[in-house]
Amino acid sequence: MKKLDSSLTNMVLVLTLVAVIMGGILALVNNVTSGPIMQQKEKALADGIRAVMLSDQVEVAATDTIDGNIIYQVTENHSPIGAAVESQTMGFGGTLRLLVGFDTEGNIRGYQLLEHAETPGLGAKADVWFQKGQKGDIVGMNPATPLKVKKDGGEVDAITASTITSRAFLNAVNAAYASYQQATSKAITQTKEETL
After folding, report:
1. Collapsing DSSP states into helix, strand and coil, what is residue 89?
2. What is the DSSP letter of 68?
3. Are 112 and 86 in contact (CB under 8 A)?
4. CB-based contacts of 173: which residues, under 8 Å, 6+ apart?
5. Using an 8 Å Cβ cutoff, are 164 and 93 in contact?
6. pLDDT tens for residues 108-153?
């Protein structure tokens, strides 16, 4: 086999051929893995909703999006028990995404941190810091009056050395609550209009 001359045309042809082959391989891998990845995300969301609503017997009755937050209206034995709201904000290290469960009165049932880029050992503690029985416990609180850290005049203990993450976390909880309230008001208005 004759060796190719080292010319610009030959180098461009070889690089183009390599790029086309690699692009094809990447497309094939994407096609093969996209289904399982989607199934895993759906399972993680369903598990998260059960966790934040404190029940294994919940069903998502309706889904709505308000201000970029996704509201999952949840029932148990066909009776409304509240909603799980997916909310996000910018933390210290990047996007902070969480799922917050609210009962029908707007009280926090639980939460789950879905994604974060916070500092390991500091801001990353948000996944447990605000849970029931922990120092920053927000479970059972109602964000009708927005939740704030004590440093800002609120009643929630901030994560030690991570005030920015704590503020971001509480901002996401407050945004989730506001969207939940709007979705609830919207549902009540629709129900009244349907009965007239």
Report:
1. strand
2. T
3. no
4. 87, 98, 100, 108, 111, 138, 143, 147
5. no
6. 999 998 887 676 767 678 889 999 999 999 999 999 999 999 999 9
